[in-house]
Design a protein that fits this description.
Blueprint: E1 3-7, E2 17-22, H1 31-40, H2 42-49, E3 59-63, E4 71-76, H3 87-104, E5 109-112, H4 124-141, E6 145-150, H5 160-183, H6 185-204, H7 208-213, H8 219-229, H9 234-240, H10 245-253, H11 261-270, H12 275-284, H13 294-305, H14 310-319
Parallel strand pairs: 1-6, 2-4, 2-5, 5-6
Antiparallel strand pairs: 3-4
The structure holds ligand AR6.
């Protein structure tokens, strides 16, 4: 997945660059800035002293010294003053300028903290939204892995209404699934038998090789067909699915490739498939969406609502401790 939200101490991130939420002096401070300077050692401060500070929204790069990464990109986020003082614009610039530096220094992976979301008081939810949206815009044209590193789950508080809606939906589905378990198992068996009989009738008149020759379109074939039908390019599709190029090539070149469920679902979302078509695509990879686990219910919830923003879906999956799409 080219973008990942992880819970970690950013100083432990083993990637090419980590981003520091610094202040204009670049001479260290509290929060993530303090943690980075402590872990990097005094050589980092010595280099920062030669940098001449940094304006809000801009970014500068230094070595990483004792940190496990190669570079530290220092950027200065805006102090939140109610939202009417160009805070959003400045925060957007922090992400753009940091990513530009990462590109110039040929970084293949970079980790961001939630800039401005601590001492500078930017509302966390909005800070997260800006981070995700700026990183995604960048990823459309660049092959690099970006991590958003957060310390606490609070940062993931997606809108309370969304969580409330999903929770209600999950509750309803659980009740339904439970009800079905107790009362309709017999019906299910009957249905399955009928289905099995039909299949036996249909195949009885065929030779084995004819029957095998009727193997359905595979996941990979269906995916490529849907991409064409939607008028998308491959790149648009795998980026939107938050899937990396290598994995997409594997799927493309091997018609029998069986992706993980999270990958199959990510493509259904990227293609903006209606619920029934999404179920078809998943079934090609051997998966179904049931009401007996939260992952399936959350995916169903978004597909049925026609909401196809993978990062919103991933925030919701994270909130309910589920594996993310991509
Ligand atoms: N790893 C990942 N995230 C962290 C870590 C860590 N080790 N430590 C804190 N966070 P902040 P700002 C999160 O205050 O709001 C400094 O004094 C934290 O929970 O570090 O941009 C500078 O010198 C929060 O979500 O940065 C400036 O004066 C996010 O990182 C000022 O603070 C950012 O919190 C900058 O304030």
């Amino acid at each position: 997945m080219p973008i990942q939200i992880v819970r970690n101490d950013i100083t432990k991130m083993n990637c090419d660059a980590i981003v520091n939420a610094a202040n204009q002096t670049l001479l260290g401070g509290g929060g993530v800035d303090g943690a980075i300077h402590r872990a990097a050692g005094p050589e980092l401060l010595a280099e920062c002293k030669t940098m001449g500070g940094c304006h809000t929204g801009e970014a500068k790069i230094t070595g990483a010294y004792r940190l496990p990464c190669k570079y530290v990109i220092h950027t200065v986020g805006p102090v939140w003053r109610g939202g009417g003082h160009h805070e959003e614009e400045k925060l957007i610039s922090c992400y753009r300028n940091s990513l530009k530096l990462a590109e110039e220094y040929h970084c293949e992976s970079v980790a961001f903290p939630l800039i401005s979301a601590g001492a500078y008081g930017y509302p966390k939810e909005q800070a997260l939204q800006i981070a995700v949206s700026e990183i995604c815009k960048f990823l459309i044209h660049h092959d690099i892995i970006v991590y958003i590193v957060v310390f606490d789950k609070d940062c993931f508080q997606i809108s309370k209404r969304l969580i409330h809606d999903i929770t209600e939906y999950i509750d309803e589905c659980y009740v339904e699934a439970h009800y079905e378990d107790n009362t309709t198992r017999l019906y299910t068996y009957l249905f399955d038998d009928e289905f099995a009989e039909t299949m036996i009738d249909r195949t009885a008149s065929l030779s084995l090789s004819d029957a095998i020759g009727q193997i359905d379109e595979s996941f990979s074939e269906m995916l490529m067909r849907k991409i064409d039908e939607k008028g998308m390019t491959d790149v648009q599709c795998y980026k939107k699915a938050n899937v990396d190029r290598k994995l997409f090539s594997k799927i493309r070149s091997n018609p029998q490739y069986k992706p993980r469920k999270t990958t199959a679902a990510a493509f259904a979302v990227a293609l903006e498939l209606p619920f029934d078509e999404a179920k078809d695509l998943l079934s090609k990879a051997g998966y179904s969406l049931t009401h007996s686990n939260k992952f399936d219910i959350i995916i169903e919830y978004f597909l049925k609502k026609g909401e196809y923003d993978i990062f919103t879906i991933n925030e919701a999956l994270f909130e309910f401790d589920q594996v993310l799409l991509g």
